[in-house]
Amino acid sequence: MGADGYSAAFGGRRTFFLQPDTMERLKAAKDSDPAVGAAYTALIGKANAALTRGPYMVVDKRTIPPSGDRHDYLSVGPYWWPDKTKPDGLPYIRRDGEINPDRSSDKYDLADLESMSADVETLGLAYYFSGNVRYAQRAAFLVKIWFLDPRTRMNPNMNFGQAVPGREDGRAEGIIDTTRLARVIETIGLIGPTNVLKPEEQAGLEKWFSDYLDWMYKSRNGKAEDTAKNNHAMWFDAQVVQFALFARRPDLTRKVVEAFPKRRIADQFTVDGSLPRELIRTRSFHYSIYALLAAYDVAEMGSCVGVDLWSYDGGGKSLKRTTDFLAAYRGRLDQWPHKEIRPDAGELDELLRRARRAWPDGGYPLADGVELRRYMKAGSAPSDLDVPK
């Protein structure tokens, strides 16, 4: 891998997470392996449905942002609810782990952001595995509506993400909403050889992400998220390192990856492998996995710029140690000693899939169908809307 991700090994497809060896193996097996064939058929069904949905855009929400500009993204914090003791419900009160369904309504932009990124990903994968360019064309259309069309594009900021009515117009935590854009970047790379995105459109997309990176580092919300003390800080870094590679700013990626051990691992990891700031949550197992996945993302992008985080060990604190701490509860989540209000025994699957890749001799099991779920969107995994951050 290099600053252009897997491009050199993937026929010019500039992906950073989608690995060509696995993608090519699954593509070759879709006509001979029944499980892969079934996943492919399901993927095409989902892609055909996606052809008829959308387009999605920030300008059609029912609530006008405080700026007065509908092009500004607006969402509400997932765990904030109206105060039933107040006539107007304001200010909202926090109920950790309990999702306010209003956040996925058409009053806000989160549902459209999720649907756009999910459909773009599905369409891109369907194009790759089928060779049918109409899927790539539709993915490109959805991307251009969201990022490029002056009438509908999202402004590259999160000034009003995860607002809390009666308290804050927008919070630093809102930046985590754009983790969904990793899927869009991967799809842009996957459909690249079709030229459904013109060179000037590709450049426009790279500029959008570069502008967003500048906002992340210069804005009040961005500075606050960068100095957070839990998974939010790691997801800030995870977004930066991929967005910067896509925007052709590899020096920024390298800077963040090189600083990650001191800024994140030393502060948030422990020698026993736990992540104490995630253990205090009502969904402690979920958030421990979620935080570590962000660190995995940083490590993968570090591989693109020649920085090895997978092997890093700072006085016993490491990605490997924390992976082992969580992997020990595979098949015995009922023995997890911390609070978890919605236990999900399958949440470890993606983590362990990636751990096997990072440490082939680590003895991590590969759950049945996990590669199909990751690379072909097989199964009925919950939407990101159901896994709030």
Describe the 3D structure.
It is a single chain. With 389 residues, this protein is mostly helical. The protein has helices at 20-29, 34-50, 110-130, 133-147, 181-190, 199-218, 220-226, 231-246, 250-268, 276-279, 284-304, 319-327, 348-358, 370-376, and strands spanning 74-76, 80-81, 93-94, 160-163. The strands form 2 sheets. It has a two-stranded parallel ribbon. A two-stranded antiparallel sheet has the order 2-3. Helix 6 runs antiparallel to helix 8 (231-246) and helix 8 packs parallel to helix 11. The two termini are 30 Å apart.
Radius of gyration: 20 Å
In terms of per-residue confidence, which ranges show pLDDT below 50 for 5 or more consecutive residues? 380-389
Shape: globular
Q: Provide the helix percentage.
A: 40-55%
Computed structural class: mainly alpha
Query: What is the H-and-E element order?
Result: HHEEEHHEHHHHHHHHHH
Distance between the termini: 30 Å
> What fraction of the residues are assigned to beta strands by DSSP?
under 5%
The average pLDDT value, as a whole number, equals 95
Outline the biggest β-sheet: 2 strands, parallel
Total count of helical runs of at least 4 residues: 14
Number of strands: 4
Output the strand order for the largest sheet: 1-4
